[in-house]
Amino acid sequence: MTQAPNYSSICLLRLSAIGDVCHGVSAVQAIQKAHPNAKITWVIGKIEAMLLADLPGVELVVFDKKQGKAALKSLKQRFKDQQFDVLLNMQVALRAGFVARCIPAKVKIGFDWARSKELHSLFINKRIAPEAQAHVLEGFKGFAKAVGVADYKPSWDMPYTEQDQAVADELLTPEYLTNKLLVISPAASKAQRNWLADRYAALADYANEQGFKVVLTGGPTELEINLANSIVEYSKTPILNLVGKTKLKELLCVLKRGSLVLAPDTGPAHMAVTVGTPVIGLYAHSNPARTGPYLYQDYVVEVYHQNLLKQTGKTAEQVPWGRRVKGDDLMSQITVDDVKAMFDHVVQKESL
């Protein structure tokens, strides 16, 4: 087997989204262990950089997509006097391709043919090994392998401070810190991927009956705030509503304090994985085998496969990997009883 090069500088390109950069952290930290003398630079989105600021041993270079061509010009200027040994282009979006053009590197590694789209192939000169039906994180492991990293079990050392944890703990209050804690992060980026407010509330009530305190988390968008308020209104249980009240690192620390997280296809589900908190994932539109909470895929409640079969007449193995299904009301097919049953299973399995 050919020995991997001794890299002195490695650039990683993954701009978004929160869940994906969480997957990327495990790959970066595996690369750091294999190449301890290599300087690691990560070109990353503005919001995602807020979560990963001060990632140990990694220089984050923020690309703000809202600046358009000015952001590309700035990036090109930033890197004009250097050349990386290798660029790991871990995003197939066309925007990422234009970003890759601004990053000077001897070798530019991208995805295999099957996972390439949006002209990704034009911006790379080497590919990772193909892998059928792989989770997104497994794809990122492929980039680590491409620079000589032996197979590894993903782990995370997420960057947060004692102050971040102190703020989170103050928000949670002693009452919530001294009890079993169900953290519900109810909102995905699109409303159709969210479960119903009255059903989240029913799970909050059920969890409370089992001795859990319940916390709601999320960002400051109108969608998230309105959904959280509806859950509180439906619930018979006292719920601590922290939606819109935490920065990303503080949210990470709240998730760390959780005994269990309930979430749809959204970034905080993957954030919870990085701090070792079990996740019950709710999925209808995308295949959880590809995008589910990596360490807790056995805890997913999903109606994806039945809807894929209904809409296409094919199974996930018979369609392009990552194929989504369409429909505004698919999440309503996930019943309260389905999630209660999974809740009971996880509580028993995790000895909560």
UniProtKB/TrEMBL annotation:
Family matches, as InterPro entries: Glyco_trans_9 (IPR002201), LPS_LOS_Heptosyltrfase (IPR051199)
Alphabetically ordered keywords of this record: Glycosyltransferase, Transferase
Top-rank lineage group of the source organism: Bacteria
EC number: 2.4.-.-
GO MF annotation terms: glycosyltransferase activity
Protein name in the entry: Glycosyltransferase family 9 protein
Species for this entry: Pseudoalteromonas arctica
